[in-house]
Design goal:
The chain has 156 residues and is an alpha+beta fold. The protein has two helices and eight strands, in the order H-E-E-E-E-E-E-H-E-E. It is globular and about 40 Å long.
Length: 156
């Protein structure tokens, strides 16, 4: 009986360790160095995007699926330059969320990449919560794109 209990305990511990390693990592996706920079391409969950991450294959309006993150030294469609949370409370409406997201992103671009504001082809866009996701997510992710593709960071 003691052997069966010990074996059951080991199986339970192994299952917990496996579950934690799958949920705490990025599931075999991109790798980051000690500074947090992406050094190997792979999927990154939307919630794990950080300023300085470069991405491909974004679909506007799609927030809850992994995106293709790549090192910024490789061709990419956009670079994350800021991420912030909108204030708590009931959903304020699409127009208020849009205005807060736009203003918040534009306010943060200059501190991330001071010379980027003067770049004529730079496109700034963001991913923001909608009414459906508001209860679980108020995060805005700000991105800058220099079509058709960029190599290197917008920070220069």
């Amino acid at each position: 009986i003691a052997g069966l209990c010990a074996a059951g305990t080991w199986l339970l511990v192994f299952g917990i360790v496996l579950a934690v390693s799958i949920t705490s990592g990025n599931g075999g996706g991109s790798n980051r160095n000690a500074a947090g920079e992406i050094i190997e391409a792979g999927p990154v969950d939307f919630g794990d995007l950080r300023p300085g991450d470069c991405v491909n294959g974004l679909e506007l309006g799609v927030r809850f699926r992994p995106v293709a993150a790549v090192p910024c030294r490789e061709p990419h469609e956009a670079e994350v330059f800021a991420a912030f949370d909108l204030p708590p409370g009931p959903f304020p409406g699409d127009s208020v969320v849009t205005q807060r997201a736009e203003n918040g992103c534009l306010d943060r671009l200059g501190s991330y990449a001071p010379n980027a504001i003067d770049h004529e082809r730079l496109e700034v866009f963001y991913l923001a919560p909608d009414q459906r996701s508001w209860g679980r997510d108020r995060r805005v992710v700000c991105l800058a794109a220099n079509p058709p593709a960029t190599v290197g960071s917008i920070r220069g």
